[in-house]
Design goal:
Length: 196
């Protein structure tokens, strides 16, 4: 009994988490059942309230609906009926806010690579495809940073392949290298014409 009260006094747990911890600690399932009944009766365990608080805290940390629901269902052991009652009305603004925190990290990437990287980051955070597409489509491109990045990568490619290849093969190798970095063919041709 004391162990169960100690658990719920430290932080919120789902019913399944407390039950699993009690079963791991106590050898008698009847005692675990009694403690669980007491904790529920006294209001120490409330899965609806736990789900609401958990979703609220994870949303504030920029996690999306899918990841939160998955964690609540499979890690915390909550019933789908409880999860249906959760509201994620602020998911789009949270996705936009999370994206703003990533803008500096991805500013120098070409538009295509940047879109892919940001989409992957949002997906790992548990945002839906609709939200991801909506948010990523609104990202302004930073053409000055992309051009500076292209110049830098072109110089690096020319130095890397310049010792080994002649002018035509050098241009092909540099073009292929810059394409693999996600730059558009028009921008690459323009820079290589200037540099070679």
């Amino acid at each position: 009994m004391n162990y169960g009260l100690g658990l719920v006094s430290k932080r919120e747990y789902s019913t399944k988490e407390v039950k699993d911890k009690l079963l791991a600690k106590a050898a008698d399932p009847a005692l675990v059942k009694e403690v669980m009944f007491y904790l529920k009766k006294e209001g120490f365990l409330n899965d609806e309230e736990f789900a609401r608080d958990y979703a609220e805290s994870k949303t504030a940390l920029f996690y999306g609906r899918e990841r939160i629901l998955s964690a609540l269902r499979f890690e915390k052991g909550l019933n789908p009926e409880i999860l249906d009652g959760l509201s994620f009305s602020e998911e789009l603004p949270h996705a936009k806010a999370f994206l703003r925190t990533l803008e500096k990290k991805t500013a120098s990437l070409p538009a295509k690579s940047r879109r892919i990287k940001l989409s992957q980051m949002l997906s790992r955070r548990g945002f839906s495809t609709d939200i991801i597409n909506q948010v990523v489509d609104e990202i302004p491109s930073n053409s000055a940073a992309v051009k500076a990045s292209l110049e830098k990568e072109a110089t690096k490619a020319i130095q890397r392949y310049g010792k080994k290849y002649n002018s035509y093969n050098l241009k092909q190798k540099c073009f292929a290298y810059l394409c693999s970095k996600g730059f558009s063919s028009g921008e690459i041709s323009e820079v290589l014409e200037r540099k070679l």
